[in-house]
Amino acid sequence: MSSLGGFLLLISIILFAYWAIRRFKHRPIKHLGLSVLILFIISLVMVGSSGNHSTSKSANDQSNSRTELKDTGSESSHHTKAVHHNTKPKAHQSKRQSHASVLDKLVSYTDKKSAGPTGNYYWHVGKAHLTGFSTISAGHYRFSTDSQQRPAIARAKLTYQEYASSRGGRQGDPLEPYAWPSYNPIVAISYASTGRTYHGYLWNRSHSIGDSLLGTKSYTSVNNFTTGTRPQNVGADQDGGMRYGEETVENYWTSHPGTHQTVAYQTTPIYKGNESIPRGSLVDIKSSDGTINTEIAVINDAEGIKINYNTGANNAKPYRRNTTTTYKRHYNTGSTGSTKHSTTSHQTTTSSKWHVAKSGYVFVSESHKYYTRVTNPGNYTYEPRTQAQANGATEAIRGNEYAQP
């Protein structure tokens, strides 16, 4: 209501009352009644117009309030969405930071020609960080390359059946990986943690996902292989390096025979910049029942040997040994049952690159496993199978490119 309209309405009421009194006393003023009526109507019109304006303003205010609330809700929703969308980049950023941290350590260890904190060419990072498994079903796998065509992430959802079918020996021949060196010297690597010295090839065609886990499928792509040193492949004691992750799963299958559980296995080679050979790998392993949930970093170097990770060149002194290896044995010659101890030269036969043991004899490794043929006999003792068994050696269940049961 406007102040002028209210004032006129009040005046019209007063004048109407005055006109009524005069008329009651029979002394009306000429035209006063008509004037009061006109004034009353005008004041009502002004008051009504003011009321409509007030109502309209109130409605507009309410509408504006609703709009502001809607805008605020929209901003809140947008902010929520922004936060939601930003969670993934933060997760990826966290993973990138994790990879960067592991890379820093790998570079430090490899530059120092170190076997790492465990002395066995691996260490535990934490829990598994798996990616890309939502579309991989049991028994399936994927190998990939990065933008430089270097071997990248290898993924597989492993089953017990694959493990069971691959037992007993290799299921294929290792493929030549990216950046495989043109020269692969036979070297001597002394392991500080074991006090032992390895004599053999420096470089291995190293599986990202091993034969014992994936069987014949592990040989379907060169992208499942990296150029790795011997200790990167099996560590200082044959149970480290990449072999540690494989044995983690093998032990799970052994304790869960015939299980329908699966194991998500992911290996990510870690490169420094544009180098062709990885400084190491991240191995993420998680079983579907949660029994295994771990991330392992594997170091790709060799104690005492400086490596160029672009070309594979190194400062290792080639190890030279006699090409003909002579072994000694005791044998029975008496027909009366008496034992006559005599020594004679007893050479192995050769077949291509293999040195093959004579019937009844085996090559025994430092890890107390024995084989019937090897490529580097100088790395083994050569003795009768019965003697090897008496000394606690057991037959190797699986072979590799250097030794076969």
Features:
7 helices, rod-shaped, 405 residues, 23% strand, alpha+beta, 4-stranded antiparallel beta sheet, 20 strands, 6-stranded antiparallel beta sheet
Structural description of this entry:
It is a single chain. By secondary structure, the protein is α+β, with helices and mostly antiparallel strands. The chain has helices spanning 3-24, 32-111, 160-166, 211-214, 230-234, 241-255, 385-390, and strands at 122-126, 141-145, 151-158, 186-190, 197-201, 203-207, 225-229, 263-270, 280-287, 293-299, 326-330, 343-347, 349-351, 354-356, 361-364, 369-371, 373-374, 381-384, 394-395, 403-404. The strands form 6 sheets. Strands 1-10-9-8-3-2 form a 6-stranded antiparallel sheet, sandwiched between helices. Strands 13-14-17-20 form a 4-stranded antiparallel sheet, with no helix packed on it. The chain has a 4-stranded mixed sheet with strand order 18-15-16-19.
Give a short summary of the structure.
The protein is an alpha+beta fold and 405 residues long. It has helices at 3-24, 32-111, 160-166, 211-214, 230-234, 241-255, 385-390; strands at residues 122-126, 141-145, 151-158, 186-190, 197-201, 203-207, 225-229, 263-270, 280-287, 293-299, 326-330, 343-347, 349-351, 354-356, 361-364, 369-371, 373-374, 381-384, 394-395, 403-404.
